[in-house]
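lol forgot to send this yesterday, sorry. struct tokens for the thing we talked abt
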């Protein structure tokens, strides 16, 4: 069947289940006759998935997973999309070894399972701090080494963002999860390069992207044979005067909508979406109630001194309160997560 697909100029995504194998077609299948494919030996059924995102579509997964379930993604000893909510926390940017280790200790005590920290920061101004890795590979390796070591010491998985293709190799060498930031959601070549590392990818929604677009671009990662994609709602552009109150608008409804469309787990980022420390608790609770599989929260032991996004960082103590409450909400709504529709 794979040979047949190749003959037609397409690629095949092969998912081997216990009892059957599903082959997804990658490429322009407009000329393909599904009736003919259905007649080929060994083929039980051939169906066309209408949505532009096929490989991440729930329709495609229903043969592989239990209905309503999410893909369980394993990264650095933890599981995302399973029975426990996942809390990713840490500074916006890695600032120094000392501060990072203090924060790692704090977020671990607060109950987080993943340590975040940007080494390559996407910034609106070239005059702002660009992240410790921006100047040289050597600096990047040093800062990434701290992230890895802090993760090891406090038994936390790690995630860091890549801004460009040149940063992918080194980030994949040190971190358990590679983050695609909102600004790069549309960067096909970066997505493909990251996908080929075969490490879990934290994929953030662009602030101007619709849900269909978001899933269509996540498809670029999955099309490389890497299904370990964690989707992240991080807020869309606010309208009118909204911007004077919150940084973006957290699209809460997107969380259950995306989870109905795809089997990939969805997490929420209350930090970048609100941009306000005093809103993180509420927006975290709201995200969990909406059915998120986890949260990514910026945390700092001394928020006032944070080099980037100081206004939205919570302390480890505040994080602890958020996580405790969110774990309860996750349990309260979890029976609904398994229901279809
Ligand atoms: C981040 O998570 O560090 C970040 C820059 O977020 P976003 O890409 O959503 O703006
Ligand atoms: Mn930030």
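and heres what i got for the seq, position by position
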């Amino acid at each position: 069947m794979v040979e047949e697909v190749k003959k037609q100029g397409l690629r095949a995504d092969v998912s081997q289940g216990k009892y059957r194998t599903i082959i997804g077609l990658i490429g322009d299948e407009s000329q393909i006759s599904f009736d003919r494919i259905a007649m080929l030996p060994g083929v039980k059924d051939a169906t066309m998935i209408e949505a532009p995102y096929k490989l991440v579509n729930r329709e495609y997964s229903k043969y592989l997973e239990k209905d309503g379930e999410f893909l369980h993604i394993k990264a650095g000893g933890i599981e995302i999309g399973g029975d426990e909510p996942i809390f990713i926390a840490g500074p916006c940017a890695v600032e120094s070894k000392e501060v990072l280790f203090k924060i790692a200790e704090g977020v671990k005590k607060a109950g987080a399972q993943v340590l975040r920290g940007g080494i390559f920061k996407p910034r609106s101004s070239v005059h702002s701090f660009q992240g410790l890795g921006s100047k040289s590979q050597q600096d990047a390796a040093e800062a990434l080494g701290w992230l890895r070591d802090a993760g090891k010491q406090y038994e936390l998985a790690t995630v860091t963002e890549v801004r460009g293709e040149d940063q992918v190799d080194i980030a994949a060498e040190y971190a358990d999860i590679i983050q695609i930031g909102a600004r790069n959601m549309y960067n096909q070549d970066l997505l493909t390069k990251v996908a080929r590392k075969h490490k879990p990818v934290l994929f953030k929604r662009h602030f101007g992207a619709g849900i269909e677009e978001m899933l269509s671009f996540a498809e670029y990662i999955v099309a490389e044979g890497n299904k370990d994609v964690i989707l992240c709602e991080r807020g869309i552009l606010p309208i009118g005067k909204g911007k004077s109150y919150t940084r973006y608008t957290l699209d809460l409804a997107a969380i259950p909508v995306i989870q109905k469309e795809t089997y990939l787990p969805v997490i929420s980022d209350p930090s970048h979406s609100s941009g306000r420390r005093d809103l993180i608790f509420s927006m975290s609770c709201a995200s969990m109630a909406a059915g998120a599989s986890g949260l990514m929260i910026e945390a700092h032991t001394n928020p006032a001194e944070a080099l980037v996004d100081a206004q939205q960082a919570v302390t480890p103590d505040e994080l602890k309160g958020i996580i405790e409450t969110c774990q309860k909400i996750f349990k309260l709504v979890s029976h609904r997560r398994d229901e279809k529709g």
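Residues 92, 272, 298, 308-309 surround manganese (II) ion (ligand 2) (CB under 6 Å). anyway ping me if u want another try
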